[in-house]
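Q: Predict the assembly, please.
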Amino acid sequence: MEHPKTNVTSSKLDIDALLAGSPDEFEKLVRQESARLFRIIARLIGNDIEAESVLQETYLQAFLRLHTFRRESKFTTWLYAIGINLARAQKRKLSRTVPLDDQDIERMQPAFSRGMYRDKPESWDPQKIALKNERKKLVHEAIDLLPPDYRTVLLLRDIEENNTDDVALMLEISSGAVRVRLHRARQALKKLLDPHFS
Amino acid sequence: MNPLVWISNKLMRRPSCEEVNRFLVEYVEGLLEGETRDKFEAHIKSCKCCGPYLDDYRTTIKMAKTSYDVEVPEALIDHTLEFLRVRMNDA
Ligand SMILES: [Zn+2]
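A: Predicted assembly structure:
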């Protein structure tokens, strides 16, 4: 890391050099991934200042654990998995609100009887959505209430717009499990927002 | 069995609201194809529950997307590299 360069972002990451401990390659990694990784961490924690130190810790952990990277996923996916775990641990420490639990999420799913909706779902009024000026805040607060596993999937998939398979690799769960959690998270979120938009 | 094949077999007849609901993620992701997708769409178009539900489901996704602004600090990379210079030398 002795020779900072300004144009190191332009070329592709050399994974072999990176794994061999090349400081230049590690710097390139930092320059390439920091903005996106910071956004994910900041959203998971909900605090930008904390996010900066978790980002730094993520790189340090990755550096110390380079020898454990198995090439079963992209290097960046492996890096993101470290960042997501650190961010979730930090969120647990800082969180003052008690999130919903799995049973709450279960109760918030639509119920069916003989294949049909047991109760007609509440439907939203587009005008109410358009006029609601604190809409962003409402949605943000509702997402914060979701249990961590659901919130994480929703953040990575719907907000960061990663594809389902990448999210599965980052969280070390199956793509099917990502889709199930995502669906339940979206439906719970809709239910939380029903009183404001119906 | 491939879940998508299973879905297609299962939906050869008119899908129920519950089945439409269960595969909304796949539908929204564009993973349903051909006849399966056609049956799905025919149901959604004619159903007083599933049509509006899908609209709100999509709105939920769209609103989630824009509800979390994050500003990346200008000096983020410099701070991070400086931190790593110190700590990686210790390591
Ligand atoms: Zn229906």
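DSSP finds ten helices and two strands in chain A. The pocket of zinc ion is lined by residues B 17, 20, 43, 47, 49-50 (CB under 6 Å).
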